[in-house]
Each structure stands twice: as structure tokens, then as C-alpha cells.
Amino acid sequence: MTVLSPSQKKEIFLDTIEGLSQNSQVEKNIQILEEITNHAKEIHKLVGVLGGMERERVEGAVRDDLYETLSSEHSMGRAEVDKLIGVLLRDGIIFSPRPGYYERTV
Description:
Layout: H1 6-56, E1 61-62, H2 63-74, H3 78-90, E2 94-95, E3 101-104
Antiparallel strand pairs: 1-3, 2-3
């Protein structure tokens, strides 16, 4: 059996703590990436539904219809949809030709 000196024990302890800290940061980064991926998927769903509505209608998608479709087909809440619409409007991906209506820019 090997006997470790106090300084060796301290070094092993610090290396272990450093490794745990790095693993914790990796886990945080993975969680952040998962959140970004989920947000991107939600945006993709909204834009997809919006595109389908644009093909069916001349005037674009109606906000209440977006709420209803995204709620029933994708389990998205009204507040979440409002937040995503705000992001898409701000980023220029969609626009509102008149109040309560939305269309894609491309």
C-alpha cells in the first residue's frame, strides 16, 4: 500500500476539485445549448405554421389563428408565442402588414 504525503493528498484533492468544476461547466454549457436548440425549434414551428397560413390566405396569418394552431398542435402557450413573435419581428424575419396579421419577409 502506498502512503501519500500531505502535499500529494492536497494535490490529488485539488486536481479532483478542478475536474469536478470543469465537468460542472461542461454540464452548464450543454444545458445552454439545449435551451438554444429548443428555442430554435419553437421559432421553426412558428415560422412553419405562419408559412402554411400564408399559402391558405391572401392577407397573411391572423394572430388568434396562430395562437390556436400553435397551442393545439405544438402545446405552445400564448405568452410563449407572443415572445417568439416579438423576436421574429425585431429580427426582421416576419412583419405585420396591419395590426393582428403577420407575414414572413422571405
